[in-house]
Design brief:
The chain is α/β, with parallel strands linked by helices and 178 residues long. The chain is built from 4 helices and 11 strands. It has one domain (7-176): Restriction endonuclease-like alpha-beta roll domain (Restriction endonuclease-like alpha-beta roll fold, Roll). A 6-stranded mixed beta sheet has the order 3-4-5-6-7-11. It has a 5-stranded mixed beta sheet with strand order 2-1-8-9-10. The longest helix has 13 residues, at 37-49. The N and C termini lie far apart (43 Å).
Length: 178
């Protein structure tokens, strides 16, 4: 019998002073059985950083052709493709061809720099692709915020993010690679 996804609830209070986005949002998030807490928190962070009313999570790990989150228009065209991790060149191309804008958040210990050296020339081919590197120390600390029911505050100013709950706070400074 296949394992089922774990259903999580998250209430987000987002104050993005860089983009002038201020909102409260309640979400239901499915955590795939193979998705660890760090990956889920990075997926949630990417959602927060790109938040708009039309943004939604996808089936993610269950479907190879979908990103972590996306924004589609009324004609089902992909306006924004948000991915996380260290995708191969083929996936970068697929995203860049399918979507008007692609944002990738890389994370991982001792792997991002190697991945970037290998994929930088391919990534530079796509004008609609933006790549950010998330520091491993911050993404690993974000697991302290993980719970089946999360109440998170996200404050974004001058490219820095403070993500917190009642007990813990994490400062994240993404590095823009492209």
């Amino acid at each position: 019998m296949a394992l089922k996804s774990t259903i999580l609830k998250a209430h987000l209070n987002i104050s993005d002073m860089d983009r002038h986005v201020y909102t409260d949002k309640s979400l239901t998030i499915a955590q795939h059985p193979s998705e660890n807490e760090q990956r889920l928190m990075v997926r949630l962070l990417a959602y927060i950083l790109q938040y708009n009313e039309e943004l939604s999570f996808t089936k993610g790990l269950c479907v190879d052709d979908e990103p972590a989150a996306w924004q589609k228009n009324l004609t089902d065209d992909i306006e924004l493709w948000i991915d996380i991790g260290l995708p191969d060149e083929k996936r970068l191309k697929k995203a860049a061809v399918k979507a008007k804008q692609v944002v990738l958040y890389t994370y991982g210990e001792n792997t991002q720099e190697i991945w970037w050296k290998k994929n930088q020339s391919a990534a530079n081919q796509y004008n609609n692709l933006t790549v950010f590197s998330l520091p491993f120390s911050a993404t690993s600390q974000m697991t302290e915020l993980f719970a089946r029911s999360m109440d998170l505050t996200a404050t974004i100013q001058d490219g820095e993010i403070w993500l917190s709950n009642a007990e813990h706070s994490v400062q994240i400074t993404p590095q823009r690679l492209k």
